[in-house]
Amino acid sequence: MSTTVPSASFVEVPETLLKKRKQNEKVREERLAAQVEAKKQRKTKREVIYKRAEAYTKEYLDAEREDIRLKRDARKDGNYYVSAQPKVFFVIRIKGISKIAPKPRKIMQLLRLRQINNGVFVKVTKATEQMLRLIEPYITYGEPNLKTVRELIYKRGYGKVDKQRIPLTDNHTIEKALGKHDILCMEDLVHEIATTGPAFKQAANFLWPFKLSNPNGGWRTRKFKHYVLGGDFGNRETNINALVRQMN
Amino acid sequence: MASRPTVQVRGGEGSSSLPLPAVFTAPIRLDVVQQVHKSIAKNRRQAYSVNVKAGHQTSAESWGTGRAVARIPRVGGGGTHRSGQAAFGNMCRGGRMFAPTKTWRRWHIKVNQNQRRFAVVSALAASALPGLVLARGHRIEEIEEVPLVIPSTAEGFKKTKEAVELLKSLNAYTDVVKVSNSRKLRAGRGKMRNRRHRQRRGPLIVYNEDNGIVHAFRNLPGVEIANVRRLNLLQLAPGGHLGRFIIWTESAFALLDEVFGTQDKVSLHKKDYYLPTAKISNPDVTRLINSSEIQAVVRPAGEKTQRRPWTQRKNPLVNRAILYRLNPYAKVIRKEETARQNKTGHVHTQLPAKTHEAGEAFINTLFAP
């Protein structure tokens, strides 16, 4: 009867274990190499982002000064300069969920305004203008300035990733979703929205509809009159910025 | 299998060996064994039912509405407690039960012949794996080899003493001891229904020719004896659990290839029967996965447990670190802005936090006696 327990030196290492060890070594080396590579890439990307942000700041400033210059020039000659019509609106849903007729209901669904105090960026075209006209009694909208766009995206920006609402805590999220449109970071996203770029549709759609609070300081006495008549709905042009300051 | 591994004959003088029969390499299918065992175990049942007339031996009729009683049929007549009592319903005292059990319930289940044979073959293959036999609870720590083969002379044993001696020499007697130690009274009514005791199962002795072996071994508690041509799944996998401890006689072991055939050779005792082929020819999945052929094309493994991303959202307009992470240029902007403000004297400092002193009334209440 051979029931002696063999010592450790007698027991052979099973082949699968040896193979596993070799495989693990290889995987580990590959992973470390990949890490080094990723770090380098991250560094170069960061530089790119920095440069872009710098360029954008200059661009925004230039655009502002240009507008002012043209106005001044025109006034000097006794002429009139009409600044360009807005290219993007920020639309906020004012009315709650109940008692909406089917057509306005559908339009608000299409614009992703499914909840009260939801806000979205909408490109201004003939088509979208007509849509907004139809749902005017239930929304307020206007031309957002750069600060509004930036604050909304930084504070309340969430992206649609895998159909989920993911907070924009890292440029990585944005790059993964919009990298193919050359949008790599928050600043790129802000730029694309504020100056409606070629990928505005994708950028705006990537942004989950903003969930704003009720305005700090309140609505006007009766919400559901047109803004012009002392209420809150409809096109309030640049006054939307003040409202967003209160709601953000 | 190019060359069959051999099995030594133990317990006798001289050492001969036999090649391993093909049955022991058959696929071990626990699902088949369990299903077949379940059905076959039902074949020993005896019918039971309640009396056909039970609960209906009254002429009860409902009194209908208007008598301030429930509308259940009530026993007619008078002069006894029974009159006016409810009858017939399963909820009534003395009524018929819900769904009275019938004798024509399907007591016996037919199982396909090939399935039955598959189960037997699987159970035999399982009996060759010491791990499974141990798991089933047999005390085989000391025996020399599994499957255990004894010389054919054992088929001529006439005395139980000889049988015990043989088992002891093989170190297989501990399994029998286990059985005799486990004999206990059954819990429940089975006690008064001719199933008074319960005990474990011991080894199964498989022989080729009975020259007294059955008489020799049959008095040992837990030991069962079977002819190799008629193997019973209920004995090979009791309870549907694989890995019965089987002790083969030499001639029975040699006969297995005839009884069950091999993958290519037809069985001589079961008409047109070949052993089943496995779905996967190399069942060592770990080895397959770790083979160089597969590892060469496999992508790197994911993490063992998914790490949750940082789930606390921080506001970049307030938290500077997050702001700089998102926009590295923001640092420059801030610096320029503060420099400009300092120049114009329009400094925007943090307001000092307001500290309040506790009011007098509060102090008085706090230190009130």
TrEMBL record, chain A:
Keywords: Ribonucleoprotein, Ribosomal protein. Signal peptide: none annotated. The keyword Ribonucleoprotein applies. Gene3D superfamilies: Ribosomal protein L30, ferredoxin-like fold domain (3.30.1390.20). Residues 89-139 form the Large ribosomal subunit protein uL30-like ferredoxin-like fold domain. GO terms for cellular component: cytosolic large ribosomal subunit. This is 60S ribosomal protein L7. Residues 13-84 form the Large ribosomal subunit protein uL30 N-terminal eukaryotes domain. GO terms for molecular function: RNA binding; structural constituent of ribosome. GO terms for biological process: maturation of LSU-rRNA from tricistronic rRNA transcript (SSU-rRNA, 5.8S rRNA, LSU-rRNA). Belongs to the universal ribosomal protein uL30 family. The keyword Thylakoid does not apply.
Automatic annotation (TrEMBL), chain B:
Keywords: Ribonucleoprotein, Ribosomal protein. GO terms for biological process: translation. GO terms for cellular component: ribonucleoprotein complex; ribosome. Residues 271-344 form the Large ribosomal subunit protein uL4 C-terminal domain. GO terms for molecular function: structural constituent of ribosome. Pfam families: Ribos_L4_asso_C, Ribosomal_L4. It comes from the Eukaryota. Belongs to the universal ribosomal protein uL4 family. PANTHER family: 60S RIBOSOMAL PROTEIN L4. This is 60S ribosomal protein L4/L1/L2.
